[in-house]
Design a protein that fits this description.
There is one protein chain. Helix content is about 40%, strand content about 25%. It is α+β, with helices and mostly antiparallel strands. Strands 2-1-5-4-3 form a 5-stranded antiparallel sheet, sandwiched between helices. A hairpin with a 6-residue loop joins strand 4 and strand 5. The longest helix has 21 residues. The chain is globular and about 35 Å long.
């Protein structure tokens, strides 16, 4: 049985639980939004004022640009994109599933460790791909 965006209720609930865990475990992470590849939020947790719908749409656009770059440079299939700013960063990680491609969007302050956030986003992607 599917709910939003072709994902089962089990997959949606799992995404919500795992997003919450990521925010709770990593200091400096302000939001995690699991979204469809076309920009609709499926699950989200925000410790700040991030709008999940806007984050999902933004992530969709950013990974689309990442796809073009990886294809044009012949680097293989894009897995993640990181945007670094003067006060934080965002990680966008792909989840390839049979029923729907997803994007994990993680927003963090500059106090967070980029490598740890990228690693946990990759772990979350793997977990969501297997559910």
């Amino acid at each position: 049985m599917s709910t939003r965006h072709g994902l089962s209720r089990t997959a949606t609930a799992h995404a919500q639980r795992e997003a919450r865990k990521l925010v709770e475990e990593l200091s400096g992470v302000t939001a995690v939004v699991v979204a469809t590849a076309d920009g609709f939020d499926v699950a989200s947790v925000s410790a700040g004022d991030a709008d999940p719908a806007r984050v999902a749409a933004m992530g969709s656009s950013i990974v689309a640009i990442g796809d073009v770059v990886s294809q044009e440079a012949r680097l293989g299939r894009r897995e993640s994109v990181m945007v670094l700013t003067d006060s934080g960063f965002a990680v966008f990680h792909s989840v390839h599933r049979r029923d729907a491609d997803l994007v994990i969007n993680v927003l963090a302050r500059d106090s967070a460790i980029p490598a740890m956030v990228a690693y946990r986003a990759a772990q979350l992607a793997k977990a969501l791909a297997e559910v």
